[in-house]
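Appendix C: a fully annotated inverse folding record. The material below is reproduced so that readers can follow the format used throughout the book. The structure is listed first as tokens, followed by the designed sequence.
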């Protein structure tokens, strides 16, 4: 296998620089490889002062300044592109609508699909760039037949292929991930940044949703959707509590339920279902979270559509592990059954299929099928 976009000739590369250490080192490596690199920071908020300050997000004025300083040290041109309107429409409004519908979206995956590898890449290609470079930990492989594949990063601990599973082959043909083959710890990446004179070497990583200033997702949604009191019920339909908006819950949630009546068996209860139609949240025992199958919609393939049903591994969360599945495409939908039941799968989440380290594709979970209860011997 050969790394995509080989450095046998200099490429015109647009480096997306968030203001963090990973994207700065990726841009530096691309420049060091001999490519003609231009740095760009994406302004994703019409009012960046309202976003998180310090080093917690990727959309602040501080982040823009950090990215500019890094570009100056690397010695590459730098620009700020305003994609705030596109980001609001494709990521923020989608996030709100999905929660309002009782689903659990992944805004980072949506941003990669709609902003970094759609809006940004389209603009880059129109301006004559060959590739977009980011600090994601993943690898693009160029096959002998000219096709491209997305693979996990060499270091599984830092792998970010899950949030890139929405990229198609055309987008992969213009994607450059200089950190994907790095078998180093994050501390070694920071040491490399420091050795290069990049001030972001010690900047903390961002883990929260960048457009929620204080990290309070429930408060953010309540401010936009309004509070709407409803019932919390158990599996029998009996009322056990109230809530101020079904959008404030996710499947599998245990904390913050504020249930006044303890379960008969004294065990904790978890969110099993969210019904925006009647504004009801259903709770129950942890065993009731077990799922044996699911249907996912809007599949996007990192290459050709799988021609036949097959066995794969699947990842259901950005930082989750793999589980074995049997998957097939039926009338444009992805039907998946699990070898062993999995727990806490929520509509709206992405399921990403893998064949070994190769990313097959991604789809959005629409429905799930509960696993049959275990039968006592």
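Designed amino acids, in order:
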């Amino acid at each position: 296998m050969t790394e995509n976009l080989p450095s046998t000739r200099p490429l015109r590369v647009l480096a997306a620089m968030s203001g963090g250490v990973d994207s700065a080192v990726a841009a530096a490596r691309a420049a060091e490889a001999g490519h003609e690199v231009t740095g760009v920071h994406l302004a994703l908020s019409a009012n960046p002062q309202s976003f998180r300050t310090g080093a917690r997000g990727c959309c602040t004025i501080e982040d823009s300044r950090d990215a500019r300083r890094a570009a100056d040290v690397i010695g590459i041109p730098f620009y700020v592109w305003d994609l705030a309107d596109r980001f609001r429409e494709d990521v923020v409004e989608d996030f709100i609508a999905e929660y309002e519908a009782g689903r659990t979206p992944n805004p980072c995956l949506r941003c990669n699909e709609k902003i970094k590898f759609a809006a940004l890449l389209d603009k880059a290609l129109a301006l004559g760039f060959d590739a977009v470079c980011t600090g994601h930990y993943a690898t693009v492989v160029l096959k002998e037949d000219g096709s491209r594949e997305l693979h996990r990063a060499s270091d599984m601990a830092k792998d970010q292929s899950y949030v890139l599973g929405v990229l198609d082959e055309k987008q992969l043909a213009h994607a450059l991930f200089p950190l994907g083959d790095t078998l180093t710890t994050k501390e070694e990446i920071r040491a490399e940044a420091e050795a290069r004179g990049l001030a972001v070497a010690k900047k903390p990583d961002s883990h929260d949703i960048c457009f929620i200033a204080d990290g309070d997702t429930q408060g953010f949604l309540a401010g936009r959707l309004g509070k709407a009191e409803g019932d919390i019920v158990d599996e029998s339909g009996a009322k056990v509590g109230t809530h101020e908006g079904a959008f404030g819950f996710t499947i599998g949630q245990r904390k913050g339920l504020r249930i006044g009546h303890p379960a008969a068996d004294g065990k904790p209860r978890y969110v099993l279902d969210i019904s925006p139609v009647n504004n009801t949240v259903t709770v129950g025992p942890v065993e009731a979270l077990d799922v044996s199958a699911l249907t996912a919609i809007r599949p996007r393939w990192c290459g050709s559509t799988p021609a036949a049903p097959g066995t794969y591994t699947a990842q259901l969360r950005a930082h989750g592990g793999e589980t074995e599945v049997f998957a097939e495409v039926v009338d444009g939908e992805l039907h998946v059954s699990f070898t062993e039941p999995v727990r806490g799968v929520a509509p709206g989440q992405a399921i990403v299929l893998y064949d070994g380290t190769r990313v097959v594709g991604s789809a959005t979970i629409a429905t799930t099928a509960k696993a049959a209860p275990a039968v006592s011997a």
